[in-house]
Amino acid sequence: MALKISDEDSAALPAALDNDTVIFSYGSLLRRRQIRALLKSRGRFRILETGTAAEAARLAQSNPQDIVILKNVRLENVRTAIVTETMLRRWYKRAGGSVETLIKAGVTTLAVPRALFLYARAAAPHEKGRILNGGLICNLTKDELAMLDIYEFAPVLKRTRAPELKMGDRSFIPEHITFYAGTVDAADISPEEKAERARLLNLNRKRGSLSPQACWERGVRRK
User: Fold this and answer.
1) pTM tops 0.85, yes or no
2) Burial (CB count <10 Å: 0-12, 13-18, 19+), residue 222
């Protein structure tokens, strides 16, 4: 299925790419090993990757049993922050969640992982937004999305409609595609949490490189 181009030369995404089971990801969900571990109940499946929307739509339609990832997609007009799991756990418990439940589900471990996460939300009208580079993950099921919600510490991060996506030089306003948006103000951080974040940012990091604790790829964030 090709992209539909209107008379105004704007494009609409095919339904195979813009539906309730497609998410935009800019972090660990784009890693093959991680997505396979999370979707192990699916059984045997392939992860098909492409850089063009038309090819992704064709693959998603013709291979419904497989995961299709459309790469080189940019989420526009978002605000980002770097958070630790210590922060996520505190916010999660304050929202009524049980960390023990996450541990039993295999989402995390008893010891707090030394990890850093990008935490994004749509920019408010008065705020200057940034760009996140990532990709669309297609052919997820509703049950798998519910499981990913747990993995993303919902309701601290909640599936929210993506404000604007860009592929190449074309922009799209999706009708259904979501991303995991932060619901807590990232400025809610204690002095101890701020010190831990700074320590993890610099732990074993080589000059000019990304922190080994970062759960995203280099170059994800752009001004």
Assistant:
1) yes
2) exposed
Cα dist from 183 to 74, 82, 154, 175, 191, whole Å: 21, 14, 9, 21, 21
CB contact set of 3 (below 8 Å; sequence gap of 6+): 11, 12, 13, 14, 53, 54
Question: Could you tell me which CATH class the domain 11-78+118-183 is placed in?
Answer: alpha beta
Q: What are phi and psi of 202, to 5 degrees?
A: -105, -10
Q: pLDDT, tens digit, for every residue of 65-81?
A: 999 999 999 999 999 99
Name which of 41, 68, 33, 22 is nearest 177 in CA terms.
22
Model pLDDT for residues 210-222, shown as the tens digit of each residue:
899 998 888 888 7
C-alpha angle 193-122-176 in degrees, rounded to nearest 5 = 125
Q: Where are the beta strands (DSSP E) in the chain?
A: 4-5, 11-12, 23-25, 47-50, 67-84, 116-122, 130-138, 157-161, 165-167, 170-172, 178-182, 221-222
What residues does each domain of the chain span?
11-78+118-183
Spatial separation of the C-alpha atoms in residues 98 and 86, rounded to whole Å: 14
| Strands 47-50 vs 67-84: parallel, antiparallel or unpaired | parallel
Phi, psi of 46 (to 5 degrees): -100, 155
